[in-house]
Each structure stands twice: as C-alpha cells, then as structure tokens.
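[PROTEIN RECORD]
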Amino acid sequence: MNILHIDAGITGDASVSRLLTAEILASQIAQNPDASVVHRDLAAAPLDHLTGAHLGGTAAADDLAAGQAALQEFMAADLVIIGAPMYNFTIPSQLKAWIDRLAVAGVTFRYTENGSEGLAGAKKIIVASSRGGFYSEGTAGAALDHQEAYLRSVFGFFGITDVSVIRAEGVAMGPEARDTAIEQARGLIATIAA
C-alpha cells in the first residue's frame, strides 16, 4: 500500500489537523506495516498558485516539475491522508494550490459527450478536518462550510467516492471544547479500515 500524507496546517505543533493526520497515519500503518509513506508538508514547502503561465505552458521548469511531482505522488497513492483545517470557512490556500496541481484533464478527470468523468477513483481519502467553531450539518454555521463540502466535491469530480472525514469541531471554543473534539475524533480514527 502506498500512503500519501498531506499536511496543510500553518500553526505547527498547535495544529489539530496535524495531530490527527499523524494519528490516522499511525493507525493505518498498524493495519498495513509494509506500507510506504510519502509526506508532503504544504505549509513548509507550498506549491506556487496557478497562473496564466501554467495554463500557457510557459511557467518556470522547476515549478512545472514540482506540480508534476505532486500529481505523480497523488496518482501513485492507494490512500491519501489530508490535514485540512478550516480557515475563513474553507481550506488553506496551500491545500487549494496542491489540489489545483492535481486537476489535470486526461489524468484525474476528462470531459466526454456525457459530461465529466473522474479518472482517479481507485483510492481512499481520509480527511482530518479541524474547525474553530461548529459548521456540521444541523448547526447554525452549516451554510458556511466551504471546506469539507469542497473536498468531497473535488475528489468526487476526480472519481474518488471513498472519502472519510475525521472531524474535530469547536477547537477554538476553549481548552475543554478542544480536548473533547480531539477525543471524539480519536474515537473515529480506529474505526476506519485500511
């Protein structure tokens, strides 16, 4: 099994999403001791955002190579573990820049006479979602969720239907709420089979 471990949280050791991705990874390795792991830290080494030069094929060679490497890592993975904190009701821009490098026609999707078709379906995605407030379905803030909804949509567009979310919600509502959210998320980690 090839595991791709993506972190995007910018708060270092204080990051709840990083804590959860590490625990998800440990759980998955316990189930698959021979797994190979590639870790990409998008906060420490972000990919450049797309520009007209990318679309025109005239971006710098090293930048194009970095995007191609990210795409190859993704396509080679059987399991992708993604740390996705909610920033301003959506995902970090570093994570969006990574996803933009994955959205390549003819590789992760294609358009047909019947509409779009995802081409990257044979993988599992586990998202470690952290949120300062409460944005789950049924909460007052649900309409502001452009984080998990976006991730499910874009990976669905790539043809990936096996997407699990481990959520720690309300982590900015004080130490007790943070600890409770993390413990609830930990309870879900062990339930996800490889």
Remarks:
- The beta strands are 2-7, 36-41, 79-85, 109-112, 115-118, 124-131, 162-169.
- Residues 6 and 96 are 12 Å apart (CA to CA).
- The two ends are 9 Å apart (CA to CA).
- The chain has a mean pLDDT of 95.
